[in-house]
Write a structure and sequence with these properties.
The protein is an alpha+beta fold and 118 residues long. Helix content is 25%, strand content 18%.
């Protein structure tokens, strides 16, 4: 298992936020809007949760990926353990990844045919 000392701070280079699963066309349009922005992606994780990820580094990371405020870091950083670490995970966190608005359109059409969305 990799330790923080062996990593370049990958977990500190993005923010991910769980969102409600889209149910209607307007919800999918909102997802497409997210993906019109640089360094943003949307994915469904292995548990079926919908996530928006903003690829933006923490402003307290140094050039080597180390935390410059380690002793005073936020609680979420303190709670993040090696088990959750991207470097220690088994496979990709993303079950289905959307990188472009067209990816969302294709998924919507597929789900519509299956009767899973309006």
């Amino acid at each position: 298992m990799k330790t923080c000392e062996e990593c370049d701070g990958k977990c500190c280079k993005y923010i991910s936020v769980e969102i409600d699963p889209p149910k209607e066309k307007i919800d999918f349009e909102e997802l497409k809007w997210y993906l019109c922005h640089e360094k943003v992606l949307v994915y469904i994780d292995e548990e079926g949760d919908w996530i928006v990820e903003f690829q933006t580094p923490c402003k307290f990371q140094d050039e080597n990926g180390r935390c410059k405020i380690y002793e005073n870091r936020t609680q979420i950083c303190r709670d993040y353990g090696l088990e959750e670490c991207d470097e220690n995970g088994e496979g990709e966190a993303e079950h289905i990844k959307f990188k472009t608005p067209e990816d969302i359109d294709a998924y919507y059409e597929e789900q519509k045919k299956l009767g899973k969305v309006k």
